[in-house]
Every structure is written in C-alpha cells, then in structure tokens.
C-alpha cells in the first residue's frame, strides 16, 4: 500500500511537471495581449482564444496554415516512408543471411549515435553542391532515414517473426515480398507503430535542418516558422501573441497522432507480454 | 519514393558536372552593369513584411527582379546561414546585416566592397554621417553595405508619474540619479539595469564617447575598459549598489509587466523602443512621453545609438551593380522607407528620412506627442566613430555573463568589462585575427 502511494506520488509529480507548460501555453493563448503580461500566468483572464486563433490563421495571408500543412507533409510522408524502409531493412537484417550483414547492422547502429544536429551542416554542403537547397526535398529526403527505426525493426523482427512461419509461407508458394507484406509486417505492427511515432515526433520537432536548408518562407515547417516569428518579437511585438497561439496549434497534430496510435501501441506491447 | 529519389540523383550528378565544367564567375569583378539583363537577385532579410516592399521594386524594375528569402533574425540563425552559404559558395546576392555583425563578415572576407560602385559612393551624402561610418569602418573609399536603419536613443518616461510626484524630468545623468532616489521613495524603480542585453549598455557607452573597437588596416584593438566606458559602468554600479534600479531581465514578460504596472518609470532606449512599450505595456497608453537622453554635462547634446542594420552585397554576387542599385532604392527612396517604417518600424539612416510624413504625426500612445521629432534630432547627435568588433557574439556573451554576476553581487560591472576585454582578445587570437594588446 505504501509503495503504491509512493508510486502514485511520483507519477503525480511527473504528470504535473509535464503538463504545467502545456497548461500555461493553453491559458496564455486565450489571453489578450494586455492580459498576457498583467494577469496570473496559470489562470484565465479575458477569454480571447477565438480572436487569437483568427489572428494567427489570417496573419500574412494565412502563412501559418501553410506552415502547418508543410509540417504535415514533411512529417507524415517521412514517417510513413521511413517506417517502411526501416521495416524492410530491419526484417532483411534479421531474417536473411548474407555477407556483410553484421557490418551493415553495425554501421546502422553507429548511425543511431550520430546526432541529427551534427549532420545538418554536411547535408547542407552536399545539397548546396547539388543546387538543391531551399527545396522541399532538402528537408524531406534526410528525414526519411531512421537508424533507430532499423535497429528496432531488426530486434522486433528477430523476436516476433518465427522462421518456421516464413518457411511455411514459402512452401505455400508466397514470394518474398508477399511474405513480408502479409505476414511479417503484420506481426511487426507494434514495432512499426512505435517507429512511426518516433519518426513522426522527430521530424515534426526537427528544427536545425530546415533552419539551415530553407530560405523560402513558403517551405517552412511550423517549428521554423514559429521560431522566426519569435525572433522578430522585438520589432513586431504583436507576434508574441501569435507565437503562443501558434505553438498551441502546432502541438495539436502530435496529440492527435498519439491518441490515435497509442491503442495499437499498447495492444502490441501487451500481446508480446502475454505470449 | 523511388522516382523522386532517382530524379534527384540524376539532377545531382548533372549539377555536379555543370559546376565542374563551367568556369567560376569572376567574384572580384568590378561594379559594372550587366549588359545581359534581365537579372534575378536573391535577397535575405528578416524584416517583417519585406516582401511587400520588394514587390514595389519588382513591379517598377522588370529587368532587375529581386527574390526575397526570409528566416529568423541575424543572431537567431541567419548569420550562421550566411557563413554556411559563403562556405558552400552560394550566398544570396544581398543580405541584411546589423552594424554590429558587419565586421565579422568583413574579416571572413564575405562582403563585396561597394566602394567600387559609383552609384553607391555618389549616394554617400544622403546618409547621416555616423551611419556611413558603420559600413565603411573608417576606410575612406570603402562601403561594406548600404546603411539601412538606425536606433538613435532618447528617454522614455512616465509623464503622469513624474508630474504627480513633482519630479523634474532629468536632463543630465546626475539629475537622473537624483530622480532615481525620489522614484524609489515613491515606490517604483526609475528603470532596470539591462543585465542580459549588452546592447543598451553599448549605446550608453557610445553616448559617453567610447569606441569599443578599432581597426588599423588588419590589426584590431579592443577597448572595453577605457575611461568613457568605465564612467558609464561606475555610474550604473552606484545605482545598483543603492538599489535604485531594478534588475528585471529585459525582454521578458516580467519586464513588460514592470512597465505595465508602473514599477518602472523610464527607459533609455532607441527609437524602436516606442513600439516595445506600446505593445508590452498597453495598459499605460497616453501616460508616456519622450525626452532627449540625459547628458554627461549640462547643456550637452550627445545621443547614443542602439541597433540598426545595413543591406550588404556578398562577395561572389554576379551582379553587384544591380544589387547596389536595389540596395540604394531600398534605403533611400521615399516609398521604400515609408513602407519599411509602416511594416517594420524601421527608422531610416538617411538625412531626409526623418522628414517622411509617417514620422510627422503625433503618436496616440504618447499622448499625441510628436515623438519622432526627438529622435530626428537625436539621430544627428549620435557620436561618430563608434566601431564594432569582429567577434561581437562572444563579446556580448562574456559581458552579459559578467553583468549577471555583478547584478547578483559577485563582482562589479567594471570587473565584468575587464574580464570581457581579456576574453575578447583571446577570442580574436583564437580566430587568428591580429590584435593589439
């Protein structure tokens, strides 16, 4: 009983710790500019959320909506393709025997250790050489690869896709691709959802790469757009309110993605445990 | 997925081939018109609404089209991007660079010297002299950018509170210190000491006659501990010691709130500060006024400067002449300056800029006072000869670290400057920039 109370206390403190900034963001986004500096930061004053939202969405011909759209494109696209690539790669590494397999795996594993930040500048120089900076692809292509995803997919494929099942599929006449798509990928679903979520958040929050690559405002993802506004607050103080409301809007897709996918995720983890 | 990847791969190898085969354009080309017009220039700036200003140019100049690129402000990432792009060999033709960052681009040899452009040298007389110093670094025929905006300083004060407590508006720094005591007695602070934003302190030192850097050809000297700067540091140290100024960090909501709630009564700031107060402390509308900056000697008329930027042309631009034409239009024509004032509160660096109709009106927030008359006068009274160094980012960081310590009672402002002096010299040396000790 005491252990339970202690655990609940720790969890409670953590929850408060993690949720307070979001609460603050929500409360702040509902305030007028005058109310923001002069009222209590953690409780509502004059409720102006609707007006603030309208201002964010219409400022400069609705550039914010475009940023949000860009983020969805970069993120959903990169996460989907990235997950698929990681799944295929991890499955191949786990289930096929070929020369250099361990070497490839170790290189990929090494990739997990290299922070994305360290790669941004070399990537810029490469894309610059190719004349491809300041394009959609300069942000999209580097986001597609996920060494951690490959690692996770390999571990999970090794543990959850029995060799016998693959053998059986082959005997029944299924090709390798079909075996992967209809059998292995399904067994790996929980891992794939995890990889997708990791990729999704990583790309959604990616900041340095677009900062370095992009100069055209119309290609910005929402993180870079908000940051840009935030650095201009001294010149145009009106932007402070827009940054707050925009930040609130920009976490909504992440929350939705988590709420939708966590069911699969938990299911999958549970399945593994019971087995 | 496969198709775009392959397309890019093909594009990639083609581009590599093309760059390998074509001869590089002569980057040291003189400033001559390009006969092969039309040309397209790229221009990177973070001025809010700059696209609309450039549209006006594009509409009137079909043969010289300008493409705008935007991003965060200079120190927020755009300067780093410029350096990356210079290293990769594809900087934009033009870029916005603040005065205090220009020297770092110059020592990296990233700027085209517009002194080679006759149209630029001919326009020199249109700019307020000290703003030209900011882009020429005192070299007689050089111009490493076209001056864009300036930040002449003045005193913002709560007229209602000063009137109500019968405190005279200070005209000298001695009177300011005396007023600070009366304000304290009335339950407020006369202002805050800007512990984390060193630029205000630089502006105050500038007014006192300091120059933090000097370059004689290639060798730099650093002077953060000269008598003028020390005088300013000692002055604010005394106010801090007697708890006559608050230490609220600038640009925070706490700081806005100090202005909103009447606990901060004055702010010695630049022309753009007018907007910071009106939007940070909207509850105090109508209660503020603007007066000239307090002086070190009674009857003096010297102002400081805080901020300002230039439009620079990067080395490697294939069209420096056209770029210079655009930069001159952007920073001298009435229509561009008016738009820049309306969209982004940029205060021009030209002599006639102050007489634009936008600056002739009274400002409602300041009780209808024609506040820009004060700044127009201040702009002509800024001390000439203040030079920035090539490693300002680290100088600012070191100074503000020391200031933060001084504010919390560890050491003094003078100590902070002495330490910043030493570390600035070390930084210059570590970047192989010759420095006189």
UniProtKB/TrEMBL annotation, chain A:
The chain crosses the membrane at residues 7-26, 72-94, 103-127, 139-159, 180-204, 239-261. Pfam families: BPD_transp_1. It comes from the Bacteria. It is found in: Cell membrane. Residues 68-261 form the ABC transmembrane type-1 domain. InterPro entries: MetI-like (IPR000515), MetI-like_sf (IPR035906). It is a multi-pass membrane protein. The keyword Transmembrane helix applies. Keywords: Cell membrane, Membrane, Sugar transport, Transmembrane, Transmembrane helix, Transport. The keyword Transmembrane helix applies. Belongs to the binding-protein-dependent transport system permease family. This is Multiple sugar transport system permease protein. It comes from Catenuloplanes nepalensis.
TrEMBL record, chain B:
Residues 1-29 form the signal peptide. SUPFAM superfamilies: Periplasmic binding protein-like II. Keywords: Cell membrane, Lipoprotein, Membrane, Palmitate, Signal, Sugar transport, Transport. It holds the Pfam family SBP_bac_1. The keyword Transport applies. PANTHER family: ARABINOSE-BINDING PROTEIN-RELATED (PTHR43649), POLYGALACTURONAN_RHAMNOGALACTURONAN-BINDING PROTEIN YTCQ (PTHR43649:SF33). This is Multiple sugar transport system substrate-binding protein. It comes from Catenuloplanes nepalensis.
